[in-house]
Design goal:
binds uridine-5'-diphosphate-4-deoxy-4-fluoro-alpha-D-galactose; alpha/beta; single chain; seven-stranded parallel beta sheet; 13 strands; globular; Rossmann fold
């Protein structure tokens, strides 16, 4: 049985859907602080808070798990700068509680949701996994700290783990059942869609004086269903893996500027995105583009949905059909 921690969140809920589809026995656990119960309503569910070791012990006493997928964690870069203590307590302290409980329960396999934020400002793009890691904010520091714990637990206790370093997770379930519902929403594509649909006055582009062709930041958008598929491939890879930790980048390997995304959203929605240019957002690297050769070769991962038009179209379809996301129930 697979434990999906944080399985009511954006990426976790898409992975839970794939597990259901492939009939892989699993349990979704989430504290529902940011996740939505409705996002995982078709999977068995338990409430669990990683900061509470008793919650984890109870889970591991009730069921036998052979693999844990760790999605649970805070994700806002700006908030992590203002309140690093919450980020370290939740993302790092929670992961340490989990690793200790897994050790006690003799569970040896873990897949961790890491981030391109571990690299900080890249020396060059595309970024391979061997690129130096100098996170530019506490959020990225917490992701790197967990990766290092995984490495140490591999050496000391035989843990087999994979970190998946997502670039910009975006899009939505192609069947329209699941999508992005962050509160507050801070991500570019859903904000641009809301502006195009008239649900928000305008999008503010954070800076157009970067050293890029049109002056706006360049990002690599990866469809959430492609991310989900990578988790299943990573789980399979752990079956024959020795103890240790490996990191894989997950991106589309194509960079689009914020202005290009705004144009794509306008095309897909059929109405332009009202926008203005504001100040740079502190901590935004100018360019983030993944090199994913390792995932292609070792996991045989091939993104299917990650051309920008498809990413935006799926996000738009979800947003149009679910104007209030998952609604009031969380
Ligand atoms: N942007 C705007 N206006 C907005 C929102 C975003 O111009 O209202 C710009 C940002 O400045 C950035 C780009 O759009 O250049 C993408 O911003 P997002 O907030 O959508 O995503 P980020 O690239 O900041 O963050 C993503 C993940 C993080 C991860 C980070 C890696 O969401 O979890 O990549 O650095 F840490």
């Amino acid at each position: 049985m697979v434990l999906v921690l944080g399985g009511a969140g954006f990426v976790g809920s898409h992975v839970a859907k794939l597990l259901r589809r492939r009939e892989i026995p699993h349990l979704v656990a989430d504290n529902l602080e940011n996740g939505h119960r409705a996002a995982a309503s078709d999977s068995p569910f338990r409430r669990c808070d990683l900061r509470n070791p008793d919650d984890l012990r109870a889970l591991f006493e009730e069921d036998e798990f052979d693999c844990v997928l760790l999605f649970a964690g805070y994700i806002s870069v700006g908030e992590s700068v203002r309140e690093p203590e919450r980020y370290f307590r939740n993302n790092v302290g929670g992961a340490l509680n989990l690793l200790e409980a897994m050790k006690e329960a003799r569970i040896e396999r873990l897949i961790f949701s890491s981030s391109a934020a571990v690299y900080g400002e890249p020396q060059d793009v595309p970024i391979p996994e061997g690129h130096p890691t100098h996170p530019a904010n506490p959020y990225g520091e917490t992701k790197l700290a967990v990766e290092r714990m995984l490495h140490s637990f591999g050496k000391a206790h035989g843990l087999r783990s994979i970190s998946l370093r997502y670039f910009n997770a975006a899009g939505a379930d192609p069947e329209g059942e699941l999508g992005e519902d962050h509160r507050p929403e801070e991500h570019l594509i859903p904000l641009a869609i809301d502006a195009a649909l008239g649900r928000r006055e305008k999008l503010v582009i954070f800076g157009d004086d970067y050293d890029t062709p049109d002056g706006t930041c360049i990002r690599d958008f990866i469809h959430v269903t492609d991310l989900a598929e990578a988790h299943l491939l990573a789980m399979a890879a752990l079956d024959d893996a020795p103890a240790g930790h490996t990191a894989f980048n997950l991106g589309s390997e194509r960079g689009f500027s914020v202005k290009e995304v705004v144009d794509a959203v306008g095309r897909v929605c059929g109405s332009p995105v009202p926008h203005e240019t504001g100040l740079r957002r502190p901590g935004d690297p100018a360019r983030l583009v993944a090199s994913c050769g390792r995932a292609r070769k070792e996991l045989e991962w091939e993104p299917r949905y990650s051309d920008l038009e498809t990413v935006v179209r799926h996000a738009w379809e979800w947003r149009e059909r679910h104007p209030d996301g998952y609604g009031q129930e969380t």
